[in-house]
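FAQ
Q: What does a multi-component entry look like?
A: The components come first, one per line:
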Amino acid sequence: MEPKIDRRQFKQRSRRELLKLSPVLLAGGFAIPPLRKWLLGRGIAFSDWASGELFQRGRPAATFADSELTPLERFPYNTYDDDDPGVDLDAWTLTVSGLVEKPGEYTLDQIRALPKITQNTRHVCVEGWDVIGSFGGVRISDFLASAGADATAPFLFFECADDYYESLDMATALHPNSLLCYEMYGKPLDRGHGAPLRLSLPTKLGYKSAKYLTALEVTNVLRPNHRAYWADLGYSWFAGL
Amino acid sequence: MRGGAVDDPKDGLPKDELEDNPEGKKPAGDSILAPTPSAGGVETPLPAEPPGPDHAVEVPAVLTEKPSDSVRAAFEHPWVVRFCHWLNAVSVFVLVTSGLRIFRAFPSFGPKLPQKNLVDVPKALTLGGWLGGALQWHFTFMWVFAGTGVLYLAYEFLSGHYKTVLFTPKDIRGVWPMVRHYFFFGPQPPATGQYNPLQKLAYTSTVLFGIASVLTGVVMYKPVQFWWLAWIMGGFHLARVWHFAAMCGFLAFIPGHLIMVVLHGWNNFASMLTGWKRDPGYRLPTS
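Then the predicted structure of the entire assembly, as tokens:
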């Protein structure tokens, strides 16, 4: 009844079982700085790949009743550097380039001429807070169609009046909740919220919803170290919700 | 776990006598000790494979000793359990410390404006340096954590190993005597198996904390795609609260776990490395 084993067998088997654990030591790679940087980069890349796979084009973002809105004065500006980059609103145009049939300068009136969408959606910040806002604008998909964009191109690249820049996967751009937004709470965007035109992407983290848009490029490639402001600094590029 | 079954008269004997078990007098039922059925009985001669270089010196010594130089030992932790345990130890450390760094970016469960901070987590307890760095750690090790979790649970249920560790209603009665023993110097309840009821409760709880961490994490990470899971949890905001609560569960478990490891000594600790526990404080079933 006593659990007994030959001492040598015990030692031999113990040693063998210990060696079988050695794959765990690979985690020690995270202690070596250059390897750590690479491994964490792979981790983010894998997460972004999985996020792209999980993204369902037909899955709408949650929408909310007016009574659930965060009051406009409690909707943080949360710009990364400047609440007002000094855009000349009268002279403003959106420069459209890349894989489009009709490149050129688009005025706000041209954009406003497209069907208007108003939606109360959740704006989720990577920091951990969120607000429910009222956003008005046009579907990015409608604008791309009007500009004759190649919808098979994988990326949209945006430039902003501050030195922010952002890029978007085409699947998200074509999502019905993805807006070129010129209104919040029924009023034209104020300067802190990105006047005259911003993105509103309720299927993405807030930092993807770039403000003060000045240029849109439909493209097959993103420059390696110039993909998106926060992604270049180490945040997730896909940032999908 | 220490101290043996009190009903065993042999427990009073000196260890040398206990181990002096001449060949041929094989204890009944010892074959269950073999890690694999094919390995045969414990007292059988060594396998036919030639001894390694380090054994060359040992062989003559063995020959001069008593024919059966045996130790009491049981194979407690299969490879999958040990592998998942250590990988999870790393993952939980990384996920808690990086998670606290992420929490520092907005240490509140309320609105952004006005913001009321709940706690100020000391930066020294966090990993990643800044929010983006902490997210890299978190988004890397969440896969390791979830992966080992799935591997562990699949193994436990497919192999039946879960029966040794899963806390079930019949264990409820045994929890209080163990608490009394550990915390109030009560008498030690007789050991009935590899794990006592309090251990089963603790280990089963950590599995539940792990499942809760992963599911609440999925909702925080993909609230649009997994809207139904968010709905089950009472909404997007509550998922963040439950995620934090699950971490608190781990934080409650870990100090007690580490103290117990220290108190139970080397043989117990080594068993999570080698699988084999010397001198287990319980007797194995005979059938």
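Q: Is there any commentary attached?
A: Sometimes. For this entry: Chain A has one domain: 61-233.
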